[in-house]
Amino acid sequence: MDNQLLSLWLPLMLGALLLGVAGWVLRDARSREKERRPVIVTVLGLTVESPRDWAALCLLLFALTFPLYLVARRARS
User: Fold this and answer.
1) Which of these, 1, 25, 49, 70, has the minimum number of CB atoms within 10 Å of its CB?
2) Helix H segments across 1-77?
3) Average pLDDT, stretch 2-18?
4) Is the pTM value of this prediction over 0.85?
């Protein structure tokens, strides 16, 4: 694969991966909310509990919020 093709596909694949993970987080958080086991975390006075907020944060700040979601999810199990 040449560099030009790689430079085109790599961002597309990473974007698709981020969208897929954010979609999974949204679906998972909604199902846990329906089961009355919401995923909630408070960091520096900011509370995240809405499935939409979790998905948006995972999309925008993946490296920080996706691991945080997994930890908070496990803590509420």
Assistant:
1) 1
2) 3-34, 51-60, 62-75
3) 89
4) yes
Check the CA dihedral 51-59-21-74 and report its sign: negative
Average pLDDT over residues 28-37: 96
Q: Provide the percentage of residues in the chain whose pLDDT is more than 90.
A: 83
Q: Hunting for tokens 């086991």 — which residue is that?
A: 37
Smallest CA-to-CA distance from 62 within 6, 13, 17, 1 is with 17
Q: Whole-angstrom distance between the N-terminal and C-terminal Cα of the chain?
A: 44
**3-class SS of residue 41:** strand
Asked whether the predicted pLDDT for residue 12 surpasses 90, the reply is: yes
How many whole angstroms separate alpha carbon 23 and alpha carbon 44?
26
**Which long-range contacts (C-beta less than 8 Å, at least 24 apart) are formed by 30-34?**
32/73, 32/76
Spatial contact of 55 and 65, defined as CB atoms under 8 Å apart: no
